[in-house]
Design a protein that fits this description.
With 201 residues, this protein is an alpha+beta fold. It has a single domain (24-161, 174-183), classed as Roll (Pnp Oxidase, Chain A), CATH 2.30.110. The protein has helices at 11-21, 70-78, 91-96, 107-110, 174-177; strands at residues 25-26, 28-33, 39-44, 47-52, 55-62, 80-85, 115-116, 125-126, 131-145, 148-162, 167-168, 171-172, 181-182, 188-189. A 7-stranded antiparallel β-sheet has the order 3-2-6-9-10-5-4. The longest helix has 11 residues, at 11-21. The model has no long low-confidence stretch (mean pLDDT 96). InterPro entries: Flavin_Rdtase-like_dom (IPR002563), Split_barrel_FMN-bd (IPR012349). It holds the Pfam family Flavin_Reduct. Residues 20-175 form the Flavin reductase like domain. Keywords: Flavoprotein, FMN.
């Protein structure tokens, strides 16, 4: 087995090992709104659930050349955001939303998705998605290393939205949802074979 010491690797080498070794990763498709009212949408795969009570999720957003990305800046300014689960039907659009646009241009307009009014937060949701979480900012952490920095956003879920045909007895049917996961490099993965294991007593 090969061993690597993170401090002896470049940022790119650390990134490659992490993103190819920690896989598959769910993809958060996040909408935010700027103080000027511009709707932003972007995908992030450093994302997961961290607590059920209270219902919390986290997303890590790396800064670019020391500057916060639109998503992080908007969340910190407005305090609200919407996380959508990425599935097979919207993966192409989600990928397109990663394009570099100036803050005054909306990815949602560019890729022709349909914004819809959220129930609790002031940030619009994306109509084409099947599962989404309206969130309010709970906590913001910053991790810095050399010239790099990452904004870690912890959001408290204030409303769940699940398509009617996907949910039964409070459980989302993962097969019907068809989530897409992020792997290393340019690779993505669809849902594979599902199996069950009994938890030990």
């Amino acid at each position: 087995m090969k061993g690597f010491i993170p401090t002896e690797l470049s940022k790119k080498q650390n990134y490659q090992l992490l993103t190819s070794g920690v896989a598959p990763r769910p993809i958060a498709f996040i909408t935010t709104i700027s103080e000027a009212g511009v709707l932003n949408a972007a995908p992030f795969s450093y994302f997961n659930v961290i607590s059920a009570e209270p219902p919390l999720l986290s997303v890590s957003i790396g800064r670019k050349k020391g500057q916060q990305k639109d998503t992080a800046r908007n969340i910190l300014q407005v305090g609200e955001f919407v996380v959508h689960v990425t599935d097979e039907d919207i993966i192409e659009a989600v990928n397109q939303s990663a394009m570099n646009l100036p803050p005054d241009e909306s990815e949602v307009d560019k890729i022709k998705l349909s914004p819809t009014v959220s129930d609790v937060v002031g940030v619009p949701s994306i109509k084409e998605t099947k599962v989404r979480f309206e969130c309010k900012l709970e906590k913001h952490l910053v991790f810095e290393e050399g010239e790099s920095a990452t904004d870690v956003i912890i959001g408290k879920i204030v409303k769940y939205h699940v398509d009617d045909d996907l949910i039964k007895d409070g459980v989302v049917d993962t097969k019907k949802l068809k989530p897409v996961a992020r792997l290393g490099g340019k690779q993505y993965a669809k849902l594979g074979k599902i199996f069950e294991l009994e938890r030990p007593e």
